[in-house]
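Researcher: Re-running this chain for the archive, since the previous output was lost when a drive failed. Same request as before.
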Amino acid sequence: MIVVVATDEEYKVAKERFKGKKIIKTGVGGINVIQALRKIPKWKRIINFGYCGSNNIPIGTEVRVGFCSHYHKTEYFDRAWAIGKKTDVIWCLTSDEFVEEYKDSDDIVFDMELAYICALGFKHIESIKIVSDNLSLKEYEENIG
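Model: Regenerated C-alpha cells:
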C-alpha cells in the first residue's frame, strides 16, 4: 500500500495517521502526480489522502470518495472512474486550478490530483479527503497554512 499526498501539510497528517506505511508526496497538480507515480506498478494499492474543497460539506469533514472525474469549467465532461468501496458515494472533481465557484449543490469535493492518479491506470485506489474550505482560497490558507 502506498499513501499518496500532494503537500507538506498533507504529508505531516498522513505520517501520523498511516504510521509505518510508504508515503509519496507528489506536489500539487497533474504533472507532478504523473512524474511521481508513473513508474509505480499499477497493481499497487493506492490511498490518496489530502485536503479538498466543497461548496456544501462542512470544513473539517472527512469523506471517502467513490467516483472521480476531471473537472472543466465548460460543459465538457471527461471519463469518470468508480473507486473505493461501493458504499463510498462522494464525487471528487479534479481541477487544474483552485475552484472557487460551483453552482451544483450535490455532495461533491474538488482536488487537483485524484483524476490523474486514476488516469495512470492503478487497479486499487481509495481516496480519503478532508474538507479544508468551502471553495475559498482564503479559507484554505487560513485552515491549512
